[in-house]
Amino acid sequence: MTDIFDAQLNPNGFLARGASAELFSLSNNKVLKLFRDSVSDEMIDREADTSVYASACGIPTAAALTRVDQDGRRGIVYPRIEGTTVMNWIRRHPMQAGRALDQMSEIHAAMHKCRAGGLRSLKQVLKTDIVHGPSPIAVQQAAIAYLDTLPDGSVLTHGDFHLGNVMMTPQGMTVIDWSKAAAGHPAADVVRSEMLMRFGIGPSDWVTNLWRDWAARRLAKAYFTCSTVTSRELTLWRPVIALAWLRARDAERTPAFQRYLERALVQAGITSGPIM
Ligand SMILES: Nc1ncnc2c1ncn2[C@@H]1O[C@H](COP(=O)(O)OP(=O)(O)O)[C@@H](O)[C@H]1O
Ligand SMILES: [Mg+2]
Question: What is the pTM of this model?
Answer without folding.
Answer: 0.95
